[in-house]
Design brief:
The complex is a heterodimer of chains A (571) and B (190).
Chain A (H helix, E strand, L loop, with lengths): L4 H5 L23 E7 L3 H4 L3 H11 L4 E7 L3 H9 L18 E5 L6 H10 L14 E5 L15 E3 L4 H17 L3 H8 L5 E2 L7 E2 L27 E4 L1 E2 L10 H4 L4 E2 L2 H15 L3 E5 L9 H12 L5 E3 L10 H6 L2 H4 L1 E6 L3 H6 L6 H13 L4 E8 L6 H17 L4 E8 L16 H13 L6 E5 L2 H12 L4 H10 L13 H10 L22 E2 L4 H12 L7 H4 L10
Parallel strand pairs in A: 1-2, 1-3, 3-4, 4-5, 7-17, 8-11, 11-12, 13-14, 14-15, 15-16
Antiparallel strand pairs in A: 5-6, 9-10
Helix pairs in contact in A: 5-18, 6-7, 14-15, 15-16, 16-17, 18-19
Chain B lengths: L1 E8 L8 H15 L15 E3 L8 E10 L7 H6 L6 E9 L4 H4 E11 L4 H10 L7 E5 L8 E9 L5 H9 L5 E12 L1
The chains are: A alpha/beta (571), B alpha+beta (190).
């Protein structure tokens, strides 16, 4: 089955629903374990997710299983589907999602929660776990599962941490269960023994799963090549997982520990294979901080000798820029395109508190070097609402921008201001979040002091950040709020043109919840909704790190300075 | 030296845009590892030229594409057809010395198929008001045992005529239709 031609002809991005990407593997369904993988956002975002691609390929590499994909239909598509009473279909074979054995959601952003409910509903699958006697088994994986409480009633089982091994163990167990039983409870009971799986029904705690050696971990060498433009429209090679810089606000810096590298040989062979199987003209080397990759010199040489001559361009998330990585950025041409810096805060005092070990001098040095080379633009990331932040910290942001401007008057400066959301499993998990009103005041102080000439500035909507804070920091009580908001039309809350705070405000009110409680500061003794998830970083360590941070003491990377006993090693 | 590729764009790929098509072809060419010439500059691309874009939703039965190649090579058609996605298929490859697609294509023959009753007279009147002459279109009612009111319209466009999108609007203005198939059957060469 597939969608009628006339329907696709009448919607905005029909290419989001056609599948048939190059490298698609078509499999006979007979006898196989059928997994539908759902990404609760649009096709172009989901197809840019490395985790989603890895799991898809791990499953399809098995003889006894298959994976098909489904994405959140955009609002125009949903309207047509509901009007014509058509179900959501998987891209590979145009099958009903409800006909699969397992439905796995990739959860990397809290503002996708309303889309999870929508996908279940459009597939004709009961929304609450307790309503589902039959298959599919509904599973969720991805970064959000380290604080999954608001989703607990909807999901049968969560995968916490790296999924490459868990998914295989899960399918093995499923296969055995299917032969002997049809009771879902028995399946869940057996699954709950897997390291890294959390089954709400059996209510235990869960320890995050960690793959030990990236060189022995499967990685897709024949990824799907989208037929239409997606966000990251390029080959992706993950060179490193985890980061130990220890920025105290950064969730990724704690929940993906420890640092594991792929060897240079492996990175090169993966790059060659992927480029030749896809025909991409660009490759991205993925890591949380590329300049920390120990083989960076070898990688630079490979780019210069192995990629540039083949007309392949290179990109990398470059949030951490220092003088030592200039050579690398030079090789990949990033300098010409424009560099990205994330000073995060305006004063050294505050940068020390959040442990962002970048000095003003570092920033100026890098800019001076690159200025000589005829660069075009610089992008600067800042956060407001950080712990202990005062007016002077805000005023220093425009001053810093103006200083950069003075170094080179021709540069184009793009500034992005986001509102700090205190994230679970970080030293700042106990701090408060500023309210939308406070955020607006801070933004107004900032813009009043900024000389806008030659500068473009953008900020996150304070009401988006507040919902992000609520859904990230809240507990199980929010499940009814999510359901209520979905019923009243909440969809694609991560999209500014779709997001409506009024829907959420009303839902919170109707469910009797004062949302301001989610913004409050917490004490060490206060229970946290994510306490049952052990990401292997000790709570005492996080608290100590929080206190040290407040006193303004910086901590160097543990890979350089030695162990601080966070609890992850040895893993 | 150029390879003139005549290909079909069909099935799911009727829904990709012209920019998507260019990206798709660049990837096909890279995967094929044929000795093509690349452009200079920061983002080098194969040197190729396309015919006027197909609107989204349209099949192209005999589309053309010129790619500059460094040297003579045999079996280009077979080599490319090994690395195309479902929805692109090469019909024929010709080696030519000059690429002149921009100059020689003066229009195309388009086909519109729909389900739904449209008055033939009214349609003809409308087509004439936008400047189409009688010999430039043919309308057929394709009622079969299975489907009633299945219609098809062939239109010959030269580049001075309105776009296929205009014809779509015009037909939709005359009644409720369900589109079944839209295509460019062939290109008109000078």
């Amino acid at each position: 089955m597939s969608y009628p031609f006339d329907l696709l002809y009448r919607i905005k991005r029909p290419a989001f629903y056609i599948g048939n990407e190059y490298n698609t593997i078509r499999k006979e369904k007979e006898g196989k374990i059928k997994v539908a993988l759902a990404f609760p956002d649009t096709y172009d975002i989901g197809m840019s997710s490395l985790g989603f691609s890895i799991i898809y390929n791990v499953i399809n590499a098995r003889e006894d299983a298959l994976a098909e994909r489904v994405f959140a239909p955009w609002v125009d598509m949903e309207e047509y589907l509901r009007k014509k009473q058509l179900p959501l279909l998987t891209l590979e074979s145009g099958s009903l999602v409800s006909a699969f054995d397992i439905l796995g959601f990739s959860m990397s952003y809290e503002l996708n929660y309303s889309n999870v409910i929508n996908i279940l509903d459009l597939s004709g699958i009961p929304i609450f776990s307790f309503e589902r006697e039959k298959l599919p088994l509904v599973v969720a994986g991805g970064g959000c599962t380290t604080h999954p409480s608001p989703l607990l009633p909807f999901i049968d089982c969560f995968v916490v941490g790296d999924g490459e091994e868990v998914i295989n163990e899960m399918i093995d167990i499923f296969k055995e269960w299917r032969v002997n039983s049809n009771r879902k409870e028995e399946l869940l009971k057996t699954l709950s023994d897997i390291d890294g799986i959390y089954v709400p029904l059996f209510h235990k705690t869960v320890k995050r799963r960690i793959v030990k050696d990236l060189n022995k971990t499967p990685y897709p060498t024949r990824p799907l090549v989208p037929n239409t433009e997606v966000i990251h429209d390029r080959a992706i090679v993950e060179i490193m997982r985890g980061c130990t810089r220890g920025c105290r606000f950064c969730e990724a810096g704690f929940i993906y520990r420890p640092v594991r590298e792929r060897s240079l040989e492996k990175v090169i062979s993966l790059s060659d294979d992927i480029l030749s199987s896809t025909g991409y003209n660009e490759i991205g080397f993925l890591s949380l901080s590329v300049s920390d990759y120990s083989q960076i010199e070898g990688l630079t040489r490979y780019i210069e000798e192995g990629l540039i001559p083949l007309y392949i361009s290179v990109s990398t998330p470059s949030l951490r820029v220092d003088t030592s990585s200039i050579e690398f950025f030079h090789a990949i041409g990033e300098i010409k395109r424009g560099l990205t810096f994330a000073p995060e805060a305006g004063t050294q005092r505050l940068r020390d508190i959040i442990n962002k070990n970048v000095t003003e001098e570092d920033i100026f040095n890098v800019i001076k070097i690159t200025s000589k080379e005829g660069w075009r633009s610089v992008k600067l990331y800042f956060m407001i609402g950080l712990p202990t932040e005062g007016e002077e910290d805000i005023i220093e942001i425009p001053r810093l921008i103006n200083e950069i401007r003075k170094i080179d008057k021709k540069i184009e400066i793009n500034v992005s201001i986001s509102i700090f959301v205190p994230k679970p499993h970080t030293p700042f998990q106990w701090t408060g979040q500023i309210s939308p009103t406070e955020a607006k005041e801070k933004i107004s102080i900032l813009s009043k002091n900024l000389n806008r000439k030659g500068i473009s500035i953008s900020w996150h909507d304070p009401y988006v950040s507040v919902l992000e804070g609520i859904l990230t920091r809240g507990g199980k009580e929010l499940s009814n709020v999510i359901l209520n908001a979905w019923k009243n039309g909440a969809r694609f809350d991560a999209w500014t043109d779709q997001y409506k705070w009024e829907i959420w405000e009303k839902a919170l009110k109707e469910e009797g919840i004062d949302w301001m409680i989610y913004l409050k500061e917490k004490n060490y003794q206060d229970p946290l909704p994510w306490d049952f998830v052990d990401v292997r970083v000790k709570k005492e360590f996080l608290w100590k790190e929080y206190q040290i941070g407040l006193s303004g003491v910086r901590r160097e990377d543990c890979r350089i300075k030695g162990c601080y006993n966070c609890g992850v090693c040895p893993y | 030296m150029f390879a003139r590729i005549e290909y079909k764009k069909y099935g799911p790929l009727v829904f990709i845009s012209h920019l998507d098509l260019i990206r798709t072809w660049e990837r096909i060419i890279r995967r094929s590892k044929l000795p093509v010439v690349f452009t200079e500059g920061f983002h080098p691309k194969p040197k190729f030229s396309f015919v006027p874009p197909l609107p989204v939703g349209f099949e192209g039965e005999r589309e053309l594409l010129d790619v500059k190649i460094k040297e003579m090579c045999p079996d280009i058609k077979e080599i490319i057809n090994k690395v195309v996605p479902y929805g692109i298929l090469v019909n024929n490859v010709e080696i030519i010395s000059n690429s002149n697609l921009g100059k020689i294509i003066i229009g195309g023959i388009y086909n519109f198929q729909w389900l739904g009753e449209i008055d033939k007279k009214e349609l003809e009147e409308k087509l004439e008001t936008i400047g189409l002459k009688e010999w430039e279109y043919s309308f057929k009612s394709l009622d079969t045992h299975k489907v009633e009111n299945f219609s098809s319209l062939h239109i010959l466009f030269s580049s001075c005529y309105p776009t296929p999108k205009k014809i779509i609007e015009l037909i939709e203005g005359l009644g409720r239709v369900e589109w079944k198939k839209l295509s460019r059957i062939s290109l008109l060469k000078k």
